[in-house]
Amino acid sequence: MAFGASGSAFAQSSGPSGQASTEVTEVVVTGSFIAGTPKDTAIPVAVIGQEELERRGSPSVLEIIKTLPVSGPVLGDSNQFSVAAQGRSGGGTINIRGLGSQRTLVLMNGRRFSGYVSDTNLLPVAAIGRVEILKDGAAATYGSDAIGGVANFITRTNFEGLELQGDYRFVDGSKGDYGASALYGWRSETTNLLVSLAYQHRSELAIPDRDWVLQPYLRNPSGWSVLGNPGAYTIRNAAGGAIGFAVDANCNAVGGFAGFTGATPACYFSYLPFDNLVEEEDRYQAYAEFNADVGETGKFHVEALYSQTSIPGIRFSPGYPPTSGPNGPGSVNVYSIPASNPGFNTFLQQTGNTALIGTAQSALATLWRPFANGGNNSTGGLGGQKGSRKYEEWRISSYLRGETGFFGIGYDIGLTYIKEKQDQQTTDILIDRLQRALNGLGGPNCTGNTPGANGCQYFNPFSNAYPGNPALGLTNPGFVSANANSRELVASLFDRQKFLATQDTFVLDVVLNGTLPITLPGGEIGWAAGYQYRKIDYNQRIGSPFYNAQVTPCPVAGSTSCTFRTGPYIFLGQNIPLDLEQDVYALFTELNVPITEALNAQLALRYEDYGGATGSTTNPQARVKWQVLDALALRGSVGTSFRGPTAGNVAPTGVTGLSGITAAGNNFKSVDFFGNPNTGPEKALTYSVGAIVQWGNLTATVDYWYYRLKDQITTVPANIVATAVAGIGNGSQAVNCASPLRSLITFNNNNACTQGVTVGNDIARVRSDTTNGPTIKTTGLDVEVNYRFDDLMGGSLDVGGTVSYVFDFKQAAFVFGGVTVSPAYEAAGFTNYDRLPGTIPDWRGQFYADYHRDRHSLRWTINYVDGATDNRGPTTVQTGPSTNCTVANARAGTATNCQLTTLGLRVRKFITHDLTYRLEWGDDVVITASVLNLLDREPSKARLELSYDPFIGNPLERTFKITAKKTF
């Protein structure tokens, strides 16, 4: 009889030598409340056991997920340039079928790990004994979020003693990654206890340590911005009239690119050298569980987890570009510098405008940012801004299960409480402080209104203020030490945005199960029925009055009467305090119908009620397995799944992220994401059909799968909106002010759009609303094969592989507010950088050969990720002044000083070879040594900021890992 949120079955365990013992242990099978058998079931479940994990070199949860062929794009590294990661840099996800991590339900021991999207980096890695991946929609069993499938992380059982483990991974260019863990287990006849403590450290890997990232502007413009420092300035006389224009000196000397945007000269800036490929991270997990027999049939279980991920110094660009100024939206000519500024006359001298000294009374910052190639001298390191991220989870889950004593009915009553906290801190410059400092009224100790006096300091915005580029080790020949900005002055320009969020989730599960008094030729009909209640409370607090849009809506603190409520920051947006809650009720039932000894059916039905405008939904599912021959079985399933909107999806508020906007020459712009109270649930139809082969030492499964997702909960893609309004180019191309999507764009110059004058680079912000989007249809094939050669040179050899092939991933036309945002398209085989759902390679696979003899084992693993085509096509870069540098003109050969950039139009496949040797030294010590990416494969080039696709390739190159485990 099965209990809980998973079925149970029995399998033989393996001893230290890898030979099967006679001990029988319980195995939990994900996907059913009724008993099933791994691999033999109608449910397509992939199981990765503890021994296999050790033979792989004890990979982290992130490493396990990234090598799953069924998983699409996932987070886990820093990924700060991915919009999807900006709310969770350093967090981890799993994304079955590429449908999005929000559509994969993560369980721990069969129960929810989080309220909504789970951070897999918070799982207690030392206690994990097995991972089960349900490759099928399972909302009829588990409820919301299980559209794509389910990942169930199951802790070790029946462990007794003390186990200590440590590991170190050598990563060229960093101090390496390392970790340590302790596992303690105690057992008596009726009780057992398991306690684990674990720590993992990832060292910082700076971008300059991988030279293939830093591509020249003409080869990959993605990591470059036209708003830099050295900047470009409009020089004015006393009456405010323009009397000259100059690009500041020393552009090439400090790492810039002297180029043009349209006919205007500019110094392009690459912010990449100041960022990291991998941030320094510290992770801590403490886990304990206690099990006890209660009476003759009862079992009590309680588990508790505390987990934390800390990124104490996440790096960003030295300073963001201005998209807002004292009078509202704008990047061009919104900040002014008086002639009294100490760097002003030096700027004129170094740019060949000495004759204007005395005549020039001010300058407007035309193409500029406060900090760029010279770095930020207030943050240390290589000169990038320094923020922080901290994620914590407290989780307590318990159940009492047993038999009621009535008609053989069993019960399982479970309670789970989860508290998730995130503390995100990011810095940005305050508009008013910057302008005042340019005028000589800056610094932390400024009193009065006399520029440069009474503790007031001038901020020098010109290149003569800094000695060089600290990230690239370049010297600035134009540096004048007397004109340098003090560290205190620089620090005083910034405010630290503090975002504090807490989410409390309470889940009550009540399940009854048993058998019906009906016997079919295959046996008794098993049943389960239950009730679930989920309550989620979300609390968001803003730790800075400047960051709070309710307190400081305007550029100047204290003002609330501005025309454009862009807030006080030159680039970043704001947030507001929030208190949201959601209650969900569910009823479900399941039948296991053994029609004959060879034919078995599993039927499930779930009703879930969200209340309010979202309403309720009912979802059935049926699975069938037919044992055609002893060696061959056929299986299939069909059902509907659903996902309700989160509390944040329906909240009429927004948050701000950053995205490289293709229409703006891939310069980063602010993207404002807003919730929508009218967002409804999304629904999916899924079915699969497959076969299971077990013939001697051969085991194989093959499954065809189909998903049709309607009314997907999504946001209007910012890049698609911007491209619809401004086209594709290097940012100098004219926009269409009459576009029906114009209202979703905020332009510079106080949001004015003048046909023929306003260009792509004038985009300041893009609005991205939550909505029910277009239908997705995806189909594919999963194949898993393993063959064992017994008694091969005194040992055994297992060879096999797993492949997931995507036949198609079609998205229908995206219509928002009656306007077609994008036409229908095929996503499979494309990178989809500017649209949903992200990179979808045609296929992924993992192949292995594992040889075991006595106390030795050697495993060779090949990880394969297919390449993809960049659907955006080429873009353009200017080699000189041009007024017609568009993709169409460049292709036609009519563009002036303009060339196509074709880097990454086809992102090549990424293949790595991993070799792991494992030695059982005595009865209590295991040593494992691994070489990962044995052939030192670099990722293929892609036209992204980091010059590679993080969802295909890996930036670590060849690494070496050693793990030692001692059992007492």
**Structural class designation:** mainly beta
SS strand fraction: over 45%
The low-confidence parts are 1-28
Mean pLDDT rating: 90
**Gyration radius, in Å:** 30 Å
Distance between the termini: 35 Å
Strand count, sense and barrel status of the largest sheet are:
22 strands, antiparallel, barrel
Helicity, in percent? under 10%
Global morphology: elongated
The counted number of beta strands is 54
The DSSP helix count reads: 9
Verbal overview:
The two termini are 35 Å apart. This protein is 6% helix and 48% strand. It has a 22-stranded antiparallel β-barrel. The chain is mainly β. It contains 9 helices and 54 strands.
Task: Tag the structure with descriptive keywords.
single chain; 968 residues; mainly beta; 22-stranded antiparallel barrel; five-stranded mixed β-sheet; 9 helices; 54 strands; elongated; disordered N terminus
In brief:
It contains nine helices and 54 strands. It has 968 residues and is mainly beta. The strands form twelve sheets. It has a 22-stranded antiparallel barrel. The protein has a five-stranded mixed beta sheet with strand order 3-6-7-4-5.
Topology:
Layout: E1 7-14, E2 20-29, E3 45-49, H1 50-55, H2 61-66, E4 104-108, E5 111-112, E6 128-134, H3 139-142, E7 149-155, E8 161-171, E9 177-187, E10 191-202, E11 205-206, E12 224-225, E13 232-236, E14 242-247, E15 257-261, E16 264-270, E17 276-278, E18 281-294, E19 298-316, E20 324-325, E21 328-329, E22 336-338, H4 344-350, E23 362-367, E24 385-403, E25 410-429, H5 431-438, E26 468-469, E27 474-475, H6 487-492, E28 494-520, E29 523-542, E30 578-594, E31 599-609, E32 616-629, E33 632-643, E34 654-661, E35 667-674, E36 682-695, E37 698-710, E38 713-715, H7 718-726, E39 745-747, H8 748-751, E40 763-772, E41 776-792, E42 795-811, E43 814-816, E44 819-822, E45 825-826, E46 843-853, E47 856-865, E48 868-869, E49 875-878, H9 887-892, E50 898-901, E51 906-907, E52 910-921, E53 925-932, E54 959-967
Parallel strand pairs: 4-7, 35-40
Antiparallel strand pairs: 1-2, 3-6, 4-5, 6-7, 8-9, 8-54, 9-10, 10-18, 11-17, 12-16, 13-14, 13-23, 15-16, 18-19, 19-24, 20-21, 22-23, 24-25, 25-28, 26-27, 28-29, 29-30, 30-31, 31-32, 32-33, 33-36, 34-35, 36-37, 37-41, 38-40, 39-40, 41-42, 42-45, 42-46, 43-44, 46-47, 47-52, 48-51, 49-50, 52-53, ...
